[in-house]
Amino acid sequence: MSWGDAPAMVPGSTQPSVTAKKLIEVMTLDCEEPLIACSPDGKRKKYPYFDSISYFPNGKEMVSASGDRSVRRWDLQAGKEIEEARIVCQKGVLAVAVSRDGRWVVAGGGDLSYDNPGELKACEAETGMVKTLDHLRTVTCIDISMDNKLFASGSMDRTVRIWNLNTGELVAGPFERGDRISWVGAVRFSQDSKKLAVKSTAGTCPIEVWDLQKQNLDVTVGKPNVGFFPNTPVFWTKKDRSIVAASTFTVYEFNSSTLETVGAPFGAHTRFVDGLALSFDCALLASVHGLHHQALGV
Questions:
Q1: How much is the CA Rg of the chain, to the nearest whole Å?
Q2: What is the number of structural domains in the chain?
Q3: 186 in a structural domain
Q4: 226: buried, middle or exposed (CB in 10 Å: 19+, 13-18, 0-12)?
């Protein structure tokens, strides 16, 4: 890894070279009344799990998405749900995102069946107004542009769509992934909102970069493969110089223009990488597998 001037871990090391503060649990948020959800076999049951969470920019509220078909808004100071702001969807919710100005909450999901349509909703946080948008198949991932004008949705139908956040109109796409094997696992706008990185759920770090102004595929890397791996996110680093992503046991950095690897991949994990997080200043990257984590300098 070679991003910035922060100290980096040596590949294979298990101890980060930065001092980490101990995390302290401050509260636990529980769904006191999970909604009833239908499992794939048709049986009805309570679904108390959260599939996605996102903070509001004020740090005082957050939203959660659940397979029980709910999008819930939480007051973190009171430690309880703001029930009047709850959105109940027709199907399980897999992804949720809050715009950086706190005005919009976007949620998407479906029933994980390839043959059934997905569900995508954009809700104005202050008024509660909800826009329901069409998606042919289950929505698996969402991202909102940094200028709060656009949002992207990826789906099990292997396509990505770009929407106007204010009007709900489709403004670009559908962009169809070329591998024809796996669905879209992660989407991320560049910081200038001109390009979109798209990552597949299967293969050796299959990534595409789409030019949103020209509406064409700019560059691609990776090989598709049969089998599905954890849906880890993808990130653009400072000034959109590179893209960071994980595949199986390894974390990669790619030049954003060519998608050639930058430096040596970080391969210290002994299991599939389950998650990635990039700090707001793009100085630190954290990766996790199972119950273990690694901290990388970027």
A1: 19
A2: 2
A3: no
A4: exposed
Sheet holding 93-98, edge to edge: 93-98, 104-109, 119-124, 130-133
On whether both 12 and 36 belong to a single domain, the answer is: no
- Give how far the C-alpha of residue 272 lies from the chain's centroid of Cα atoms, to the nearest Å: 17
Q: Which two tokens stand for residue 142?
A: 């969402």
- Alpha-carbon distance of 116 to 114, in angstroms, equals 6
Interval 211-244: pLDDT, tens: 999 999 999 987 766 555 557 889 999 899 999 9
CATH number at residue 50: 2.130.10.10
First CA to last CA distance, the chain? 7
**Strands (E) located in 134-291:** 139-144, 150-155, 159-164, 170-176, 184-189, 195-200, 204-211, 216-223, 235-236, 242-247, 250-255, 275-278, 284-289
Beta-carbon count within 10 A of 194 CB: 14
Cα 288 versus chain centre, distance: 15
Preceding amide of 230 cis, omega within 30? no
Residue 58 shares a structural domain with residue 98? yes
Cα 262 to chain center, whole Å? 23
Domain hosting 143: range is 31-176
Task: Kindly report, residue by residue over 68-115, the tens digit of the pLDDT.
Answer: 888 999 998 888 888 888 888 888 888 999 999 999 999 999 876 667
Q: Which of 171, 240, 172, 245 is nearest to 208 (CA)?
A: 245
Residues 157 and 256 in one domain: no
Q: How would you label 117-147 residue by residue, b for 16+ Cβ within 10 Å and e otherwise? A: bbbbbbbebeeeeebebebebbbbbbbbbee
Its pTM stands at 0.80
Do 149 and 257 sit in the same domain of this protein?
Answer: no
**Rounded Cα–Cα distance for residues 147 and 120 (Å):** 20
Query: Does residue 283 belong to any structural domain of this protein?
Result: yes
